[in-house]
Amino acid sequence: MTTPFDPIVLGGKHLANRVAMAPMTRSRAFGPGAEPTELMATYYAQRAGAGLIVTEGIQPSPVGQGYPDTPGLHTPGQVRAWRTVTDAVHREGGVIFAQLMHTGRVGHPSLLPDGLVPVGPSAVAAEGQVFTHEGPKDFVTPRELSEADIRQTIADFAEAARNAVEAGFDGVEIHGANGYLIHQFLAPNSNLRTDGWGGDTEGRVRLAIEVATAVAGAIGSHRVGLRISPGNPYNDIAEDAPDEVYLALLDRLAGLDLAYLHLLEGPNRDLTPRLRKSWPGAFIINPFTHPDATGPEALKLIEDGTADMVAYGALFLANPDLPRRLAAGGPFNTPDTATFYGGDHRGYTDYPALTA
């Protein structure tokens, strides 16, 4: 029987265990350059015991930023600053992938430079608000992407992936979940297009496929993962019947030989084994445990073959040495979700170096 602490080869990298650190937005890239800081290097290095670290969302272009103080991978300064982070993780023996996250219609003009406004597949505003430096603000109606804009967006993902490799990352994860740009193209309530980028299933999966293809072509498919969240309503997404779209997506992607698929599971676990069966490569699951944080009981999903790896989010914030604690059966610090926004780690006292 496979155990969570058996090694695994993923994308040509030998991982020490099957416990992954899930991506969590942190808003710690202070300053106009949207560059990572020494604090971020400390944060990730302390979690290098994970089999795989997936970073917080990193915007591949200026217009891809949807939250304050999130880092980018589209300038030379950002590449240099990320090298500090990847070097710190590698010194501790870790493996780290950069999550490339274009937030699309999620965001606000006050977060963007040079008069830019959020963009999306269609001019449909999400209901809700986003946090800004001036406090919460309503989402705005995004500018609908033109054909040329879409082609530039794909190129931006590919260039950010090249930058990630230059910055020392072991690979990248394309964020196709949580109501951000790629998910917006997949969902029928945010994508009202009738051209080749919308309408039927083929049109709605097209951006995800073309981004994955371009990124794989830029840095090698073995360095590329994809995260999806079928049926996840976050950021005003409505997917009442996601099965057809996501099974079609996996079918079209199967031939790319990507490093892994990362499923942020929804409450309908019936879809999970169908996705697992459809995917020919490594399968990572961030299991649905709402409203609780994913706990040690999720490790059984590796033992019973549901997934090859399990990704932990909040529990990794409270327990930087989580794989060691899982192997020992605890003890575990309890995540205090009332004290952090988007992955902030304030409130945890047994790792004082993390204090922000």
SSE pattern, N- to C-terminal: EEEHEHEEEEEHEHHHEHEHEHEHH
**Main β-sheet: number of strands, strand sense, barrel status?**
8 strands, parallel, barrel
Proportion of β residues? 15-25%
Shape: globular
Distance between the first and last residues' Cα:
41 Å
* Low-pLDDT residue spans: 339-356
Helical content band: 25-40%
Number of helices: 11
Quick one: how many beta strands?
14
What do these coordinates show?
With 356 residues, the protein is α/β, with parallel strands linked by helices. It has helices at residues 38-45, 76-91, 147-166, 181-186, 201-204, 206-219, 243-253, 271-278, 300-303, 314-318, 322-328; strands spanning 8-10, 13-15, 19-21, 52-58, 96-100, 119-120, 129-132, 135-138, 143-144, 171-176, 224-228, 260-264, 282-286, 309-312. An 8-stranded parallel β-barrel has the order 3-4-5-10-11-12-13-14. It has a two-stranded antiparallel sheet with strand order 1-2. A two-stranded parallel sheet has the order 6-9.
In short:
The chain has helices at residues 38-45, 76-91, 147-166, 181-186, 201-204, 206-219, 243-253, 271-278, 300-303, 314-318, 322-328; strands at residues 8-10, 13-15, 19-21, 52-58, 96-100, 119-120, 129-132, 135-138, 143-144, 171-176, 224-228, 260-264, 282-286, 309-312. It is α/β, with parallel strands linked by helices and 356 residues long. The strands form 4 sheets. It has an 8-stranded parallel beta barrel with strand order 3-4-5-10-11-12-13-14.
